[in-house]
Amino acid sequence: MTNQVRRVAVVTGAGGALGSAIGEALMGAGYHVAAMDRSRVALEAVGQVWGERGHSAFHLAVADQTVRQEVDEAVGEACAKGQLAGVVANAGYAKFGGFLDMPPQVWQRHVDINLTGTFHVCQAAAQHMAGQRTGGWMTVTSSNLAMSHADQVGAYCTTKAALLHMVRTAAAELGVHQIRVNAILPGVIDTAMTTGMLEAPGVRSGLLAKTPLGRLGRPGDVAGLALFLASEQASWITGASILVDGGQSIYGQPAWTAQDRRVPHEPAWISGYPADSGAAWVDDFTVLHENA
Question: What CATH topology corresponds to 7-290?
Answer without folding.
Answer: Rossmann fold (3.40.50)
